Amino acid sequence: MRLHTAGGDIELRGPLPERLRRLRPLLPLGAIGYAKPANGARYGIVMKCGPAEAHAVKRQPPVARLPRVNTTVPSESRTFHSVR
User: Fold this and answer.
1) Domain of 31?
2) Predicted TM-score (pTM) above 0.70
């Protein structure tokens, strides 16, 4: 799978089976392989199994919605600032 970003393309590759075997003991409820890929993923982390549930914190910066403010300066300085 390839992701296109402003900084360039990123190629996502599936994990090697050996890496999954080493990772699985670190996950409280393990990981599974999907019969059919879901949203491009072939594997998933088990977060709930019956009454047992793995609690986790998703480490991702929040999406900031900043107001759009434009400031122009005299043309002799040839500078335009935009904050989004």
Assistant:
1) 13-55
2) no
